[in-house]
């Protein structure tokens, strides 16, 4: 992957898009009897499963490397309700967290626990 990124860096800069990486992953989970989650569950439910798996991976990496992680989450709040957003932020614990979003949920602004920067 690193070699591909190096070889295609100029094209990516010109187009403003990277054509390889985890942002292009197509996540599918088989629930049972060949039922795929994306045809049965809502987008929010699928996103919740994916985020849960990412947290398992993060905890594995932290235990293995004995280093803390910084979480970079793009468009986190779309498709998640307040309960799932709160649960995710609790799960993030004391990790440093950067989130990009189009809309900040008002209940997060009201807590005073977060810093927001508009670009």
From TrEMBL:
One of its GO terms (biological process) is double-strand break repair. GO terms for molecular function: ATP binding; single-stranded DNA binding. PANTHER family: DNA REPLICATION AND REPAIR PROTEIN RECF. This is DNA replication and repair protein recF.
């Amino acid at each position: 992957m690193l070699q591909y990124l190096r070889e295609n860096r100029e094209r990516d800069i010109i187009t403003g898009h990277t054509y390889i990486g985890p942002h292009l992953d197509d996540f599918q989970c088989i629930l049972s009897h060949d039922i795929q989650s994306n045809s049965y569950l809502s987008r929010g439910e699928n996103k919740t499963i994916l985020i849960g798996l990412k947290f398992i991976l993060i905890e594995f990496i932290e235990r293995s490397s004995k280093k803390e992680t910084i979480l970079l989450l793009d468009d986190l709040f779309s498709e998640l309700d307040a309960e799932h957003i709160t649960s995710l932020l609790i799960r993030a614990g004391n990790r440093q967290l950067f989130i990009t979003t189009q809309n900040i949920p008002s209940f997060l602004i009201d807590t005073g626990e977060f810093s927001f920067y508009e670009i």
